[in-house]
Design a protein that fits this description.
Shape: elongated
Number of helices: 4
Order of helices and strands: HHHH
Largest sheet: none
Strand content: under 5%
Radius of gyration: 15 Å
Amino acid sequence: MPFALALTVVLVALAIFQIALAAGAPMGRFAWGGQHRVLPARLRVGSLVSVLIYAVIAVIAWDRVGAVDLFPSLFSGVAMWVIFAYFVLGILMNAISRSKPERNAMVPVSIVLAALSFCIAMGFGQYALAI
């Protein structure tokens, strides 16, 4: 359960960041390739979609560790591996960003998310509530 909690905390922080971007905060150099100080409308929508994706990821993680029971265990197990791969891809995409602020901020965040999702996918902390 600690891995799902840590993952959720990071995702909530990212969601707050994405909501701020969608609201017009001048922090675009940290996201979406860093080419815009304030995101254009299409990327603002993308930021809001990201928040929904983060919520789905958190729910799957909590299901995988046994804190909630919403999906068949096979689904949440496979989904966590897909999520791990998604965050590994995020490491690579952020690492090749032309924006140095994005690289410096988001590569470490992506590494943390990948590590936490790996631990959850492996089953570490699974069913910790039953102990």
